[in-house]
Design brief:
Number of helices: 9
Largest sheet: 8 strands, parallel, barrel
Shape: globular
Number of strands: 9
Radius of gyration: 17 Å
Strand order of the largest sheet: 1-2-4-5-6-7-8-9
Length: 252
Amino acid sequence: MSKTIYAAHRGYSSTAPENSIPAFEAAVKRGFGAVECDVWEAKRDGRGPELMVMHDENLSRMCGLNVRITKLTRSELSEYPITRGKNIARYGGAVPIPCFEEYLDVLKTGGAIPVIEVKSREPEDEHNAIPEETAEHLTRLLYQKLPDRPAVLQSFNLHSLYRLLPHIKENTELLYLVKKPGLLKTEKLLQYKKAGITGISAKYTILSSGLMARIHKCGHKLAVWTVDSGILARKLASADHAEYVISNKIYE
């Protein structure tokens, strides 16, 4: 029996607006083994870090507002709901942008693993990595809300993962998000492993059987995104090529 876990991409985003509470609730109800979200740190208002859930930094695609999520406080963001996305009319035409705590609260209702992408403007720039204080805040919230639950933290920014590393528990995976095959050479994979990274989260288009074997040989777990082909999803699962398949659908 396959041990591959299906992760709902930005929630069950083929049935509800991505990265919204309805999408997360639908993913839990549908029985996904994991639920993925994206988090940004909003502008601070003097009360410490505030983490908000949204894929794009700019709100134009989902909210119709040409402004960065990082330039608004949590209070200000409450005035600009999500107005676009799958079946938005079913939810009255608008749903609030969730905060990180609300995402975690939804997951408390089931056993799904949280898969949290930590966003940054310049993925390879250390200066844009998650601040130390924010890394501690994120993990504290995670473990307060979902104690002893396995978890996955992933990012395109290695420096963000390194800043999260001192704060994570043993059952939390750190996955390096990759869409360039040059980042998956053997020497680099071994460097990531030595530094404490536990896995690779790769775009499906860059992967081959040989590359997946190399990733596992270097001691890494593997997540593959975004897989919306049933044939590919089942292949990844049946051959145990991937520990996680991130998808807008679930394949049984």
